[in-house]
């Protein structure tokens, strides 16, 4: 199941998106400390396709998807 989230994004001078923070519906904020991979991919657990960002948040890696115009993570990934 998809969990839609708000995401703070930095755009570089070439217009490329760099997500910097994930914000849950309850207001909790999780800083993205690094992004190690960006590619178009399907979300096999929750369905859908989009741009998949492999993000390091806290002490773990997780996938964040941009499915234009929304962002989502797999349910239970917080």
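Q: What amino acid sequence fits the structure above?
A:
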């Amino acid at each position: 199941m998809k969990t839609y989230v708000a995401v703070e994004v930095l755009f570089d001078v070439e217009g490329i998106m760099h997500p910097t923070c994930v914000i849950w519906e309850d207001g909790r904020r999780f800083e993205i400390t690094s992004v190690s991979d960006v590619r178009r991919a399907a979300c096999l657990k929750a369905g859908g396709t989009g741009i998949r960002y492999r993000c390091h948040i806290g002490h773990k890696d997780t996938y964040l998807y941009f499915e234009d115009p929304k962002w989502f993570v797999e349910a239970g990934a917080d």
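Q: And what stands out in the fold?
A: The mean pLDDT is 93.
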